[in-house]
Structures
1.
Amino acid sequence: MGLLDRWIRKTPARAARSTPQVRAPDSPAAAPDHHESWYVSSDDKDRFTVPHGEMPPFHLIGYRAGSGEAVLRLCEDSTGLLIGPSDTRLPKTGVYVSQLRGEAYHQDGCKAGDFSPGRPVRLVREPDNPHDPFAVAVYDQSGQHQAAYVNKQKARMLSKLLDAGEPVQAVSIRGTAAGRPCDQVAILAARPPVLRHVLSRRPSGLPKPAHLR
């Protein structure tokens, strides 16, 4: 059962190596369309920089988009502002977010596998891929059902880590449970300690997520 399966009961409406135990972050709530004031500014290039060895200053939270789709979004601890999945500062913190590419060619796999938000997924290198030597395929936790591929920019980054034997793990942050049509999958990948951190519940006392205020 994915994180969002637990949340939805309360509200209307593998990686290459071992997988961390997942806990449910803040419950998602219905949100209207995207609003710029909910997101961190792109002005400060060092905004998420922390001393070596410390965890990044954000966590994943449940979020229900205006369409009703339940997803996971990164939320900055100090402000409660959301962090866009394409934020170029994330890789510097060891966090890699990718909207997958090629789901249209793997519709059967997308539907058969469990890619619901919070579920572990497997990253599989394809160095002999004729279209991209840096290709990283994404499968469900069983390794039997392929969703698609990490986008090329993030694949270049992740392929270097995987080829070097780094213990990179990943979870889905957008997708559907097995047996349901799935048009889009997004993942978040990181080293195990970082992934466990962002999946853990936001500590009490932090600012409320901006879209819930």
Note: The radius of gyration is 16 Å.
2.
Amino acid sequence: MRGTVPGLPSPHPLGGTLPALYADDSFAQRLCRGLDEVLAPALVTLDCLPAYLDLAPAPADLVEWLASWVGAALALHMPDQRRRQLVAAAARLYVWRGTPTAIRTVVELSTGQVPEILESGGTAWSPDPDSRLPGWPDPGLIIRMQAADQPIEESQLKSLIAAFVPAHVPWRLELRR
């Protein structure tokens, strides 16, 4: 939580911005000093906003807040570096939403494992009109991976995958023991 920081000087004291009429008014100056103490942390935060939005030096609680902006589900016990990589890549991955590349990348960033992705569809070319079509007849997607040593819960992983799988395609996550 952010709050007041005792002794933090305000980068923009309010007392000096008052009209000349209040420059010698002790009550107005004391009121402004009291407001300076309350506003100083907010002003310092706003002055440093680009550093807060940069994921490398951002505080951990702000990384979680930025994750909510881009719809990334973060597990509490996920390593900090992996959390930051997932949040940084999430907005870029929405461009590739619905593709195996996006699904593979988001699973790899959240678990550290490269999943096996099986799709029902496909394209092929053949001079023989009776050749076998690629894939299988029912639409679907299967994501297979090892269940051991996952830094994210299965329900969180499913909600993260659901954001990148096309809405009209049934899919399932298979965790191998």
Note: The mean pLDDT is 85.
3.
Amino acid sequence: MKYRTRTFYSETQKAMMWDRWRQGETLHNIALLFDRHRNSIRGILAQTGGIRPAQRVRASRVLSLSEREEISRGVVSGRSMRCIAASMGRAASTVSREIRRNGGCRGYRACVADQAAWDQSRRPKRCKLAQNRALARIVSKKLKALWSPEQIAGWLKCAYPDDESYLARTRRNSIGSESHGALQ
């Protein structure tokens, strides 16, 4: 049996797949362009139900690359975080978190920080209930007992006051899992 290594397609290649799919080409014909089996193309197209996903864009409220470069220049020149933040019109806590999250004052690099922020913003993210089976069982039992998500979140805060893995975003996750059937 012949095994192929896993192929990761670039954004340009995916755009070409979507263009040809929209023009009505078959999976077989599209796969021939990449010298791959049609199932590898089907996997890309099926992820979003055969509908081309919207192009990712940054929210206006997040730091831009130019702002990160300004932070980097400010750190190198020895300016305080408050001074850097004031020159950008941002909160000092935003600048402080950005620097701390991306290597500290000595290791901060704007391009690396910008790419990390872009990668971390990818959706959808796995919900906490999918990651933590024990928590999922607890929430499931409470939902079957007709507890509301707010009641469950409040109960978890009292029952597990020192366990952050149970507390963070539990209410939102219990609502999402209830409607999507993730606990069944």
Note: The chain has three domains: 11-46, 65-120, 128-180.
4.
Amino acid sequence: MNDHARFETAPVGPPASARRAGPRVLRLALNLWLLFHLSAIIIAPASVRPSSDLVRSGWDVVRPYLQILYLNHGYHYFAPEPSESTLLAFAAERGDGTVLRGRFPDRRISPRLLYHRYFMLTEHMNQAGPDLQDRWYASYAEHLGHAYGARRVKLTRVTHYLPSIDLVRAGVTLNDPRSYAEEPLGEFR
């Protein structure tokens, strides 16, 4: 044998032309989906007004996808300018004449997720159409009647308005009694 002979290594595996395109296409599709998903998650809160026309047109593209996956969270509740909150006050009268009063959501509710659930229920009640609102009120009254053993329940919608920046600078607190407006919803048996 010649010590100066060259040895070339043979390539391991099939030649490049014989490799399947399937895994590459799958990897590309997965990367494109991840890019679309991440973009959709970023566009959702960015599309809340005030926003640019470009972002709002991007929102039009990703909205169906986010709604199908229930990722269309209510960012408008929190930023950039949150609107008023809707609360529900009640007076539940028992058979012996005692009256229990309350409001939900109530900050004392624990765990915090339950408070948030009540908050979302009252907000959705506020957004329901007029034909559904009466059914929502009756449903709440029925639940409260069962929960407190009440024969009569009075409901009141409480709207909590946020103070303007000028009022905050003047020392008005977020829970100032003047920032609440009440609207009787009716009495239910």
Note: The chain is about 45% helix and 20% strand.
